[in-house]
Amino acid sequence: MKNIGIKLSLFLNYFVFAFLLNSVGTVILQVQRSFDVSKADASLLEGFKDIPIAIASFILASFLPKIGLKKSMLIGLAIVAIMCFATTFSNEFWFFKILFLAIGVSFALVKVSVFATIGLIIDSKKGHASFMGIIEAIFMAGILIGNLAFSFFIDDANPKSTFWLNMYWFMGALSLLAFLVLFFSKLDESAAKIDQRKFSEDFKEMLRLIVKPLTIVFIISIFMYVLIEQSFQTWLPTFYQDILKTPASMAIQAGASLAGVIMIGRFLGGVILNRVKWIHLLSVCLIMAGIIIVLVLPLAENVILDPSTNWLNAPLAAYLLPLLGLFLAPIYPTINSTVLSALPKHMHSSMAGLIVVFSALGGTIGSIITGTLFDVVGGNKVFYFSLIPLTIILASVWVLNKQVTKSTPE
What we know:
By secondary structure, the protein is mainly α.
């Protein structure tokens, strides 16, 4: 297989950062239990993760091809490996703000580089969409395995236990492994560079991208999507514990189940896209996601606390709610691939930077809104608000379809 080494490295990089980034939901739950942190304060961890992603991506995205895509990924992996090992010795809430800040900056380096690298190693539009779907599925696999692994380090009987910090030994080792695999992989980056251009010209090109109609509609779509997905992924463990009255370890496993369903949905989406137009698939997915929210959330009301609750006797909503991920799954990789494959390769880094920036902002705002609404309207009603961005996305992707068709007619 062509470029097998670098492809394996990209998969491993995405797996590592899925593990790290989406541990924020578990950490939000655990700092509430272990350090007596409020929901509102705990939700700030999402901002310490996502705002640095946005800032670093905006500043660095257009420069990374000149710095070196491989070098940028190596720097990101080295930072998170060091921080993970250091976390095992910390038991203070403030340190987790620093941890997620470091993870955020590192992910900005890695994700922009990964997206730009895909354009270098994959030539066809179908191949690009397929690989994008697979790598996003790998990302969800990282979330699934990460949440499951984390749940085994949770002491349900002792909320103040900090035994869960030992999980960061494994995270550090995984980051180090990803560093070594990438270090020994070969990557030809020449097509991503325009050597005669200055940094300032690359940055101006990214700024010009923002004002294009295609980009504006695209940004709205990914911003709203990440707002929805991140709010569910971050706050689902808290929803399961507070509303469905499940044990903390089971609540974290519920987050893993959502990631697992999204992973399956992205693999299936890649297969279906070979036979169905992307706009039709996404339209059906968005409508079905809204239907699931409307039908399943009423089942989560008035659940009675039962200390013996487990996966064999959980409320019906506990099994049905993760199905939402099946229909959310194809949306993000499909719209990303659709726009990236319509651009020249030397512009992929700039557009990837915009993707990361507005994905990060959507994740932060979604998590903070959800955390605030938990206290204001109650956890049993909070996810109904997802119907608003779902509707906006449905309108946006149809406009995006028209813009892409104009830009790159078949």
